[in-house]
Design brief:
The chain is 84% helix and 0% strand. The chain has 172 residues and is mostly helical. The termini are far apart.
Length: 172
């Protein structure tokens, strides 16, 4: 079970960064057929997020390898990750349900889903990410868990502005 925690967190982070790349590009292009444009933007977000996630994972592996008791350190990280998932999983489920409704409903219904679901959820995303990071380490005094939680939250939240500044500052 403890192996599943980092895999689920990593998958959530990668999906989030792909969507962040999409969000960074929205409203920047007047083309009618935007699918290739948005796919490129999503790939850029995914690549940026994967780079940050890979860097964080390598730091975790190096720290665990140098630890006197790597099993205990990993268990502490897994416990913090499980607590983080307690916040992120319900939020992700609502986002997925909203996206499915957006894609499956007719135009009027999908517009309604954007207004009551996807728009507010996008605005709430930074607060949810920070709340998940805080909740994950609240009962812990382990510096590694704190560092990983804060770095992961900062990394996920930084993707959209970085992709926007790098590729989508000016309309294309």
């Amino acid at each position: 079970m403890t192996v599943l925690v980092p895999l689920v967190l990593g998958a959530l982070a990668l999906v989030d960064t792909a969507l962040a790349g999409f969000r960074a590009a929205t409203g920047r292009n007047a083309r009618i057929r935007k699918r290739p444009y948005y796919l490129t933007a999503s790939r850029r977000g995914l690549a940026s997020g994967a780079a940050g996630l890979g860097f964080l994972a390598s730091l975790i592996v190096a720290t665990l390898a140098a630890s006197a008791d790597p099993g205990a350190r990993y268990a502490e990280l897994a416990k913090a990750g499980t607590r983080m998932l307690q916040v992120l999983t319900p939020f992700a489920a609502v986002v997925v349900a909203s996206l499915l409704a957006y894609w499956l409903l007719p135009m009027r219904g999908s517009t309604f889903v954007i207004l009551i679901g996807l728009g507010p959820l996008t605005l709430a995303r930074p607060a949810v990410v920070l709340a998940a990071a805080a909740w994950s380490v609240a009962p812990s005094d382990d510096w590694l868990a704190w560092t990983v939680a804060l770095a992961a939250a900062a990394g996920v939240l930084a993707v959209e502005p970085l992709v926007h500044r790098r590729w989508y500052r000016a309309p294309g």
